[in-house]
Fold DUF4219 domain-containing protein.
Amino acid sequence: MTGITKLTGSNYRVWSLRAKRLLQSRGLWDVVEPLPRADKAGEQPQAPGGDVPAAAPPPAADFEVRDAQASCLIMELCDPISLNLIVSTECAQMQWVRLRRFYGPSLGQYQGLREEFGEFAAKAGGKGWAEIAGELEGLQQQIGEVPGGVKPGEEEMLGVLNEVARGKGGEYGKLAGYLRLKGEYTYQNFLMSLVSLEWQEARSSGKKNKGGGWKKGGGGQ
């Protein structure tokens, strides 16, 4: 059991990330997406240290076994509909490419993804900063994967994060101005400051709750 929810289409982004990590953990990702050759065309690969022969490529039989293992994992992680898309090919690499072509970001989805990015702050108010960052960065990645699409840059990411912070109010809404004054207004610094503030507030709230419980118990004696 892998614990990975089967691919249904709408969950492709999270599914592909988890499936990729699983294949990597099994040493099978190079079967699905082979690494580019390091040697230039027409040149022999350099031997390590200049005198040790380069490693021979894996035997064809070994590759076939690993390809079958990768293919089985991919098919196991598909629901019946997505499985039907790839069942006609036994090549793990082609199965992965076909799933990405059907369910991955496409030019037709670009406008919708951009609209989702623009509306992100309005829908993120009740979430924690770790969840907000994960969803926002995932959306940024999806937009960047669209052929011909323009990936949101740091300025856009900061703008969305700051809009969410202002919506939460309090100290969150003041952090951007504070970081600007220090010359440290970057996406990573802003996010880490927001997470740190959230942690401090949660810790402070926990102490107050413990204090309140102690006082109540003391009053009952």
In short: The CA atoms of residues 123 and 164 lie 9 Å apart. The mean pLDDT is 83. The longest helix spans residues 187-219. Residues 107-214 form one domain.
